[in-house]
Amino acid sequence: MYLAWFFVIMLLKEVTMSLITRRVVESVELGEGPHWDAETQSLYFVDIYGKAIHKYVPATKKHTKAVIGINHVSLIIPVQDQKNKFLISIGRDLNIVTWDGESETVSHMEKIYEIDNKPNTLNNRFNDGKCDALGRLWAGSMGAQPVPGHVELNKGSFISLESRGKAKTHLTKVGISNGLAWSLDNNYLYYIDSQKNTVDRYDFDLQKGIISNGESIFSLKKANLTGILDGMTIDTDGNLWIANFGGGRVLKVDPRSPQRLLNMIEMPAHQVTSVAFGGANLDQLFVTTAGLTTDGVAYPPPNNGATYVITGTEAKGLPGIRFKL
Known about the structure:
By secondary structure, the chain is mostly beta strands. 5% of the residues lie in helices and 49% in strands. The strands form six sheets. It has a four-stranded antiparallel sheet, with no helix packed on it. It has a four-stranded antiparallel sheet with strand order 2-3-4-5, with no helix packed on it. The longest helix has 17 residues. The radius of gyration is 19 Å and the shape is globular.
């Protein structure tokens, strides 16, 4: 028995030691929405409270940003077949902007959609968003935060956008619309509402752009873990990698088996916000974090708010899908 436990401990030690976590971009206030663009071999992400879009090129270690400065920016996705065009959110609006990836400002901006425009939701804002295999955007919103870290309940919605102004509302009374991923066969959409603190699985019809039959497949509470579930991605084995905000870790979950937690990676930052696989071989896990003062507790730089890359996970992911305008 002792010998068996010895080998288990040594195996866990070997797995842990094979992981290398490096800080690659200096701290921002609320890093979010990492998107790996295979065409430019670049990582795009946002600083929500800094109202800025960012670009990081691992090959050259070059980091650039453009400050939008109007309202919170929560997502950035390159537009398919259009050089230097990006879909970004600004508050409750979706906009197409022109950015050369170098300048400190964007050169053109066009609003194409507005969410939650009823009197009781005018203080909402977009949060996470990604494109499905057809280039259709799926994104959701959240309520206002009258106190930092405390969001108004059930004010958000979850939509899909196929083109300028053409959208479908799929969910209402959403708390904090967050992580998104699709199963490898596109039969399921995995979705996180951070106020529910669960990963929900929906039947997904790619051609019709509809979801149905939602059910919870993973609960942070049932896993006896602290914090909330935030952004997520999927690997080529079909496993989910989920940011655990307030828990200081990344979770690896098998969505095909309810409540199956495969692994946890402890991070140097407490407020882990999102994850995306990238790099030339799509085997590097990029992790965004925040450095927010919450309930009087400060989480200062350089560790908090930095963007990290983790190597040695032995997993590979998929590149981000560009928005088809």
